[in-house]
């Protein structure tokens, strides 16, 4: 979680300095979801959404390759042609930015390979028709897909209550998919994921700290999961953050 947070702090500074010329979709505030799931399911094939830095870094992606991609360099993970949303490593497939398109692609991958797969998306993306059809297809064919909804209750700036009257957990269950909801506390996620049978869906409540796209903020976030965990671990005598801070500061000194 710290590595993701401080990677994006460096990214934000580079953006403000005018070194980044593509849109950026930040994972700040939502780090716990990818970090926890990468510990539980390290060998799954992962299809992230456009807000994908946390997923890429948590599942083994190179910070250097991601930095170079965002800076538009040939040494980037997609040779500088994908920008900040199109990221790829051995376990993480690239995403080109079309809202929710990674969901049916992940389902297709699971169908063709029969390998356990994770499809990440937000609470706005699940409203796309092809996303809902993909849930039904996965249920019908009993595919090994774990659907992860990072639910920050916003589609750009529009809250769920103004967009729909249904919940994603109820819809998934209506298809016959095992589905649960939790906070993004790592202990809650671990408890929820215990013994889960695929296909399954986890709706994880989380809070993004920045605009839908870009480095600005509408207001002070009401909660910071990383800070909460930091406070807890500090009382237990764990000290680890400074080393990661220095590592990420050095990373962005290119």
Explain how this protein is built.
This protein has ten helices and seven strands. By secondary structure, the chain is of the alpha/beta class. The chain has a single domain, classed as Rossmann fold, CATH 3.40.50.970. Strand 6, helix 8 and strand 7 form a beta-alpha-beta unit. The protein is globular, with a radius of gyration of 18 Å. The two termini are 23 Å apart.
List key phrases describing it.
alpha/beta; single chain; 39% helix; 254 residues; Rossmann fold; five-stranded parallel β-sheet
Task: Outline the fold blueprint.
Blueprint lengths: L1 H15 L14 H10 L4 E3 L5 H6 L4 H8 L31 H12 L3 E6 L6 H12 L4 E7 L2 E2 L2 E2 L8 H7 L3 E6 L2 H8 L6 E6 L19 H11 L5 H11 L3
Parallel strand pairs: 1-2, 2-3, 3-7, 6-7
Antiparallel strand pairs: 4-5
Query: Would you give the CATH topology?
Result: Rossmann fold
Q: Structural class of the secondary structure composition?
A: alpha/beta
Biggest beta-sheet profile: 5 strands, parallel
| Count of individual beta strands | 7
* Low-confidence residue ranges: none
Short description:
The chain has helices at 2-16, 31-40, 53-58, 63-70, 102-113, 129-140, 168-174, 186-193, 225-235, 241-251, and strands at residues 45-47, 117-122, 145-151, 154-155, 158-159, 178-183, 200-205.
């Amino acid at each position: 979680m710290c590595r993701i947070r401080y990677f994006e702090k460096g990214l934000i500074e580079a953006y403000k300095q005018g070194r980044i010329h593509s849109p950026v979709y930040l994972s700040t505030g939502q780090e716990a979801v990818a970090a926890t799931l990468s510990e539980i399911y390290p060998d799954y094939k992962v299809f992230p959404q456009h807000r994908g830095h946390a997923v890429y870094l948590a599942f083994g992606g190179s910070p250097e390759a991601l930095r170079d991609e965002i800076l538009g360099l040939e040494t980037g993970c997609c040779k500088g042609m994908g920008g900040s949303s199109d990221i790829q490593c051995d376990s993480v497939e690239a995403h080109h930015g079309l809202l929710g398109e990674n969901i049916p692609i992940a389902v297709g991958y699971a169908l063709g390979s029969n390998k356990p797969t994770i499809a990440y998306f937000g609470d706005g993306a699940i409203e796309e028709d092809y996303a809902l059809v993909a849930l039904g297809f996965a249920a019908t064919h009993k595919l090994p897909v774990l659907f992860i909804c990072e639910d920050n209750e916003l589609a750009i700036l529009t809250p769920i209550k103004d967009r729909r009257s249904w919940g994603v957990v109820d819809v998934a269950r209506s298809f016959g998919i095992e589905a649960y909801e939790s906070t993004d506390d790592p202990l809650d996620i671990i408890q929820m994921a215990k013994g889960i049978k695929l296909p399954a869906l986890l709706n994880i409540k989380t809070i993004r700290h920045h605009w839908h796209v870009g480095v600005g903020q509408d207001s002070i976030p009401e909660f910071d999961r990383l800070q909460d965990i930091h406070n807890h671990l500090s009382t237990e005598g764990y000290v680890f953050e400074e080393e990661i801070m220095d590592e990420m500061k050095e990373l962005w000194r290119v």
